[in-house]
Amino acid sequence: IPIVTDLGHARNVLIVRSSDLLVAISGSYGTLSEISIALKLAKPIIGLRTWPHMKGIRYVKTAEDAVDAVSSLIK
């Protein structure tokens, strides 16, 4: 869901705080920033082809697996 804020990198905090969980797909340092904020706020994180070997991320291999993981968390 696009969130237009014109806040630069500060938008990452807004995105994470307004989310129940985070799905991190690929990404670079902005995604890493969002992951870090989500970890600090104890938000569930699902990772698809994103930053590897991070404790607290539930890694999945396919988009279908990501959908299943989201479904299991929101039930």
Question: How is this structure best summarized?
Answer:
The chain has 75 residues and is an alpha/beta fold. The protein contains three helices and three strands, in the order αβαββα.
Chart the SSEs and their pairings.
Blueprint: H1 11-17, E1 22-25, H2 29-40, E2 45-48, E3 57-60, H3 63-74
Parallel strand pairs: 1-2, 2-3
Characterize the structure shown:
The protein has 75 residues and is of the alpha/beta class. It has one domain (8-74). It is built from 3 helices and 3 strands. The protein has helices spanning 11-17, 29-40, 63-74, and strands at residues 22-25, 45-48, 57-60. Helix 2 (29-40) links the parallel strand 1 (22-25) and strand 2 (45-48). Helix 1 crosses helix 2 (29-40). The longest helix has 12 residues, at 29-40. The protein is globular. The model has no long low-confidence stretch (mean pLDDT 94).
Q: Can you give keywords for this protein?
A:
single chain; 75 residues; alpha/beta; 3-stranded parallel β-sheet; 41% helix
Number of domains: 1
Helix fraction by DSSP (H/I, runs of at least 4): 40-55%
Strand line-up in the sheet with most strands: 1-2-3
What does the radius of gyration come to? 12 Å
For the sheet with most strands, the description reads: 3 strands, parallel
Q: Averaged pLDDT, please?
A: 94
The total count of strands amounts to 3
Secondary structure category: alpha/beta
End-to-end Cα distance = 21 Å
Oligomer: single chain
| Element-level helix/strand string | HEHEEH
> pLDDT below 50 for ≥5 consecutive residues: which ranges?
none
What proportion of the residues form beta strands (DSSP E)? 15-25%
